[in-house]
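Action item from last meeting closed. Structure (435 res):
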């Protein structure tokens, strides 16, 4: 009986490996993920647009050979040879392909885009694995920069019209790292390889804060087919933008991208910027503790079911290929209990005046209490609901490291916490959620 059981286990493992080899492959340093409706190729530097996809994939540019594989989608979900055109994409590889990421830690920068290696002293990385879990196909990339370990996990549900990425940053230095910025962006060419047009109609669909709690920038093709490509997140520490010059210079401070002051960029929710332009998502992590405090764990997400090292944080986002898929992707990220992003860094204004110490609000979402650090006894605290109505709270801070306030009398919902100094200048603006 034991021999039969062992044989069954071995046979099951062989079958699983065979299925995985069809759905995901690691070839020449690139990982290729093959869903039923979406396919993607991840380059050795962690961006998309991998060359020489294996047989059975559907790369498509204007070249007869098909070119590299960024991502393509069978929007009709009716097979890769049915319809006119039978599928859409490649979404950015025609012409001069641009898709990639930038990372800034303090004042130092690194970036990787267009499958062209790395820019930035000390940045290294490679695709390390691929696997399957149920209907999901997963590729993992890992790298290092400035004592920061970077892990990128790409998850493609074989039955969905979107895929997601989770970037985890782990501070392995003996000192804290502050003001960390991450930017993901691309030049969308949704239908160029079919219609010949490099232009897209681009819109900031959601900019946080908003009732949905999402940040999404959408590019739509200009032909009658009007294919959709959206880059979005459910992360409250993100800002979407549309901009006209790419890649962003390695000399550009990513704080300007996140704060909404990048020259030539559009940020307002509902605003449009049409043509051959780029779209992006910028994220901020205010603080990561040093490695020797990793045992001092923190729980950023009430639904996480556990706590996470204080020197580790995650951001998550998605690429989607229909409006319905965008909704599904947002819901997927909201339910992802492994994302551990501090909730204290988004502001609703472009700049914060007179701020001398980082104002941190936690937990967020909150229940019956809220903690606020960075206050002085002369600060004035106001709370507003999402239609701008003042909510009475009667909170008076003291000169101490952390002030704790009760929130029993505040109804559930989304609010804006406004903090002013003794002169009436805005010190900080923080979105909060009362559960």
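Sequence:
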């Amino acid at each position: 009986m034991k021999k039969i059981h062992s044989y069954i286990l071995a046979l099951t493992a062989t079958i699983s490996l065979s299925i995985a080899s069809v759905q995901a492959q690691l070839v020449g340093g690139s990982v290729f993920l093959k869903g039923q409706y979406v396919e993607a190729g991840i380059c050795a530097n962690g961006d998309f647009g991998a060359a020489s996809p294996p047989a059975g994939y559907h790369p498509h540019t204007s070249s007869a050979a098909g070119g590299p594989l960024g991502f393509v989608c069978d929007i009709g979900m009716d097979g890769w040879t049915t319809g006119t055109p039978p599928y859409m994409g490649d979404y950015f590889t025609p012409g001069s392909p641009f898709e990639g990421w930038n990372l800034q830690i303090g004042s130092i920068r690194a970036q990787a885009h267009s499958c062209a290696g790395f820019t930035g002293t000390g940045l290294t990385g490679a695709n390390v694995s691929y696997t399957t879990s149920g209907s999901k196909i997963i590729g993992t990339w890992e790298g290092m920069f400035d004592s920061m370990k970077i892990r990128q996990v790409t998850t493609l549900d074989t039955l969905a019209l979107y895929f997601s990425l989770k970037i985890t940053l782990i501070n392995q230095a003996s000192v804290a790292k502050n003001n960390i910025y991450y930017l993901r962006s691309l030049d969308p060419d949704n239908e160029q390889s079919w219609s010949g047009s490099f232009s897209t109609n681009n819109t900031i669909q959601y900019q946080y804060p908003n009732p949905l709690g999402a940040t999404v920038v959408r590019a739509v093709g200009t032909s009658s087919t009007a294919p959709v490509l959206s880059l979005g997140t459910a992360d409250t520490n993100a800002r979407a933008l549309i901009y006209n010059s790419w890649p962003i210079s390695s000399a550009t401070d990513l704080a300007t991208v996140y704060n909404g002051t990048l020259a030539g960029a559009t940020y307002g929710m509902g605003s449009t910027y049409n043509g051959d332009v780029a779209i992006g998502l910028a994220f901020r992590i205010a603080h990561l503790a040093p490695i020797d405090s990793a045992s001092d764990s923190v729980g950023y997400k009430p639904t996480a079911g556990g706590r996470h090292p204080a020197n580790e944080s995650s951001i998550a986002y998605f690429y989607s290929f229909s409006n319905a898929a965008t909704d599904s992707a947002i819901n997927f990220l909201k339910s992802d209990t492994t994302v551990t992003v501090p909730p204290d860094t988004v502001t609703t204004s472009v700049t914060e005046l007179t701020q001398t110490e980082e104002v941190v609000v936690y937990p967020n979402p909150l229940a019956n209490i809220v903690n606020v650090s960075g206050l002085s006894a002369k600060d004035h605290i106001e709370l507003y609901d999402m239609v701008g109505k003042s909510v009475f709270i009667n909170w008076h801070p003291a000169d101490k490291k952390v002030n704790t306030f009760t929130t029993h009398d505040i109804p559930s919902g989304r609010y804006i916490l406004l903090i002013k100094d003794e002169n009436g200048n805005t010190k900080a603006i923080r979105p909060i959620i009362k559960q």
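Note appended to the action item: The two ends are 54 Å apart (CA to CA).
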